[in-house]
Fold each of these.
Amino acid sequence: MYNIMTKKEYEKYAEKIAPKSNVVRNTARAFVVGGLICVVGQVITNLLKSKGYDMDDTSNLTALIMILIGIIFTGLNVYDELGKFAGAGSIVPITGFANSIVSPAMEFKSEGYIMGVGAKMFVIAGPVLVYGISASVVIGIIYYLLNF
């Protein structure tokens, strides 16, 4: 009736039908796309500095603009296609983080703005934020106690 496979037979079968990945091509794509995202950030920084903004304002505005670009591209489904093409190259920290916040929110938009978008917005990014904030509080307390 049923063909029962041993573990070894199953491993051979899975290896045979699994798609082969091209490591060199995938690495090159990730490098180029990640690099281009960083180049866009650098161009924005240079433009802001040329307009006379100081370094603090330039850094903050660049981060905000890159987040906005990530959000817009996610909303237009461009970022998902970029992720399929570039893999890890598309998760350059600031735009990838924006994408990870917006994607779940868009997925649950049909459930409403409060229970859908609002509740699901931090599904992926929430633990990162909680850990980051908690770690900063603990480190701040340790720093305070060591310099007391």
Note: The chain has a mean pLDDT of 85.
Amino acid sequence: MVDFTDILSKKADSVEKPKPKPVGTYLTTIQGMPAMRTVTSKAGEDMPVVDFKLKVLMPQDDVDQDQISDDISSWAPFIHSIFLHTEGGQYAFKQFLTVTLDIEGGKKTLGEMLAEAPGKQVLMKLKHEPYVTREGTTEIGTRIESCAKP
């Protein structure tokens, strides 16, 4: 069970920003059933999104092992999101299911295929990318660059 008391008793200045994870390719597994949610665009349009939780299992040869400073089993899952509000997004979703996850399509619905996603393995490639914070400073974060079939 989570102990919120321990977390909430920390002094704010003792909480540090984690270092970006090393770039490169990682073998991951889809953890649990992918989540469906809706986000609102700047134009006020509701957009359906599916989020896949990718739990890191093992770095591949292109990852600098010396840059991994903690146990990868303790890493929070990365979230691979696919927006479904356009035909292109729906096609990318189908391709992710059929090509990357190797789920048989045919006469199945996308929902039936999605139900087969938990436990499937994915090669996730990470990259570093600058972003601007709310304070207006630029920092480096880690982002999923691509996903591929193992």
Note: The beta strands are 24-30, 35-40, 46-59, 78-83, 121-132, 138-148.
Amino acid sequence: MSPSRKQLYQAAEEFCTAFASKKSVDDILSYFSTTYEVSAIEYGEPILAPFLGESFVGPSGLRQYFELIGSLLSYDDATFSEYVVDCEALKVSVKGRAKFTWLSTKQSWDETFTYTLDFDEVMKVVRYQVWADSGAAYLARKGKLV
């Protein structure tokens, strides 16, 4: 039997809440499937930021992605809204907002981003996709954000 809309929504909300409350990498990884091959990708040109455009695959790839992000960026005031649930595809897309800071330059920007989360039948994330403002990240990284 397929998961219900409510189950998918709750699983996505729990994942997003863990991110918003700055849970540890281990806590975030606990939301991912151990049954299927898992992956994370943040879309964009790799020249803009080292975590863009590469698919991080498997538990070690996920850990590498989240640790890389944590070594380069911090964030505050993360909120999530507008959850779109697809029960047939076992996917949830959600809009997020947060204030990000590139750690080495201390430059910050307010950003709206989107996650698409693919789930397995036991409500664990299989595929984590992010669309964000890679231009702002690049400018902050270079210390040229106005």
Note: The mean pLDDT is 96.
Amino acid sequence: MIEVKIFLDEEDTYEHSKLYEYIMRYLMHNKIRGASVFQAFAGFGHKHHLHHQKGIGTTDENPLMIMFIDDNEKIKNVLPHIKELIKEGIIIKENVELA
């Protein structure tokens, strides 16, 4: 099995919708085995600008991680399109063993 982690900002968009929502719908449409979105408390990228929660109800582009898993063939089918979508984020792909 292959696990993919995508790091992006909550406010990233694609075709007038949140990028993470678009990616989740894309993964569901392509029948990926499972996916989750995780929100971070803080993070920074190559520009070294710290993004973090500023208080109750306010945010500064919170970092998100989308994690999904499936067999190698299905990952190879969906990953090229996802790579086109991610402009400033990071994509990590690794082999995993399910327990």
Note: The mean pLDDT is 88.
